[in-house]
Amino acid sequence: MFPSDCLDVNKAGHLTIGGYDAPALAKEYGTPLYVMDETQLRQNCRDYVRSIERFYDGRGLALYASKAFCCKEVLRIMAQEGMGLDVCSGGELYTALQVGFPPERIYFHGNNKNAQEIREGVAAGAVRFVVDNLEELRRLDAEALRQGKRIKILLRVKPGIDAHTHEFIRTGQIDSKFGFALETGEALNAAKKALASQSLELCGIHCHIGSQIFDTAPFALAAQVMLGFLSQIKAQSGIELDELNLGGGFGIRYDENDTPRPYSEYMERVSAAVKITAAQLGLAVPFIVIEPGRSIPGAAGITLYEVGAVKEIPGLRTFVLTDGGMNDNPRYILYGAKYRVLCANKADQPADQTVTIAGRCCESGDLIQEFTPLQTVEPGDILAVLSTGAYNYSMSMNYNRFPRPPVVMVNNGSARVIVGGEDYADLTRHDY
Ligand SMILES: *Cc1c(COP(=O)(O)O)cnc(C)c1O
């Protein structure tokens, strides 16, 4: 019935998350409110960590792509669960270092890391850089030399897989701002340059083929293409690189059309492809890295709003106006993201209306969902938008000078604030 195990309905007919009554949370902490369930969050990590143990004999690492939801407490939990971390900015790296995240499990992404970020990443010690382009390779080489360090790197490669059509498109994916193209020889050239550097240690290669993917086939295809590239590097240089990072992109359930497979199934299928292809190419099975982002916090999180006015436009639509909107969830206005919405204090009642959920920003496009089923609601009711744990808080903004809402973590019926809500003073903090 619900997209994740942490959600249920109690005797009062209220939605619960992690055993906590959702309308009670709204009352206690105010709305809008992000809520995340710790048990679910940890469980999602364990699925990946255990799969790596099982299908790669532990020779691998699951990185949490922190851009999905980055705050200190979530990163502490990731460290405790044995996850590595994918950061793609100085700010994400800073947050990780603040909680003592082991640098040797941090991978630094980003297609245009600036001088400060390169300096900070090198200074952090064992952080691995995923190098995007030759200019970065040059700057990183110079900075490592300057700091007297030897830095482990991977090269970001465009394998030419269209994950949503399954096709191996030889040219199509060149048209991406991320990474080195395989088919033009750009990636091989970069590998040779990296191998020639004294201060950089080329450990392996990386690709990321897309997001919200349900099928395992494109991942298996990407693994084959990437192993082919490792074989090419070996043929040209005599060096067999030991690390293959296959990126993230595993889909989650937003609405009933989404049908994610258990992550262990993906791991099993891809590990089989990796082992067979490596054997065919005469390569040892490399150390495997994966980078799940949204599938870690996504379905573990919900957002709660209070209903203000309900505005019926006869013959057209009914707007349910909430006290949040594109500020805390810009994904509908950005790309029409689907969400399931329900009335948290009427969760046992049928969704007998079709409504549009709108926010309170000065933008007509400030919508959370259009023409979506909902219980008949009135002012004061609490709405829950499900599967908002990823790319909501992390994409939130202060448009119209609305303060960002707090984030509450629930765990077996208890709750704690993990990110405080902003107040008006936060909004003027940097104003002169
Ligand atoms: C965004 C991103 C991920 C995570 O993607 P999800 O779809 O959230 O799993 C992993 N790796 C890289 C390089 C990314 O940019």
Structural notes for this entry:
- This protein has 432 residues and is α/β, with parallel strands linked by helices.
- The protein has two domains: 7-37 and 298-428, Beta Barrel (Lyase, Ornithine Decarboxylase, Chain A, domain 1); 109-295, TIM Barrel.
- Helix content is 30%, strand content 25%.
- The protein has helices at residues 22-29, 38-55, 72-80, 90-98, 115-123, 134-147, 186-196, 217-237, 263-281, 331-335, 424-428; strands at 7-9, 15-17, 20-21, 33-37, 60-65, 84-87, 106-108, 128-131, 151-158, 161-162, 167-168, 180-181, 200-206, 243-245, 287-290, 301-313, 317-322, 341-343, 353-358, 367-374, 382-386, 407-411, 414-419.
- Strands 4, 16, 17, 18, 19, 20, 21, 22 and 23 form a nine-stranded mixed β-sheet that branches. It has an eight-stranded parallel beta barrel with strand order 5-6-7-8-9-13-14-15, surrounded by six helices. Strands 1-2-3 form a three-stranded antiparallel β-sheet.
- The N and C termini lie far apart (51 Å).
- Pyridoxal-5'-phosphate (PLP) is lined by residues 65, 67-68, 86, 109, 208, 211, 247-250, 291-295.
N- to C-terminal separation? 51 Å
Mean pLDDT: 95
Low-confidence stretches: none
Strand content: 25-35%
- Write out the distinct hetero groups bound to the structure: pyridoxal-5'-phosphate
Rg of Cα set: 23 Å
CATH topology term of the largest domain: TIM Barrel
CATH class of the largest domain: Alpha Beta
Task: Provide the domain count.
Answer: 2
Structural category is: alpha/beta
| Tally of separate helices | 11
The helix content is 25-40%
CATH architecture of the largest domain: Alpha-Beta Barrel
**Major sheet:** 9 strands, mixed
- The shape is globular
CATH superfamily of the largest domain: Alanine racemase
Number of strands: 23
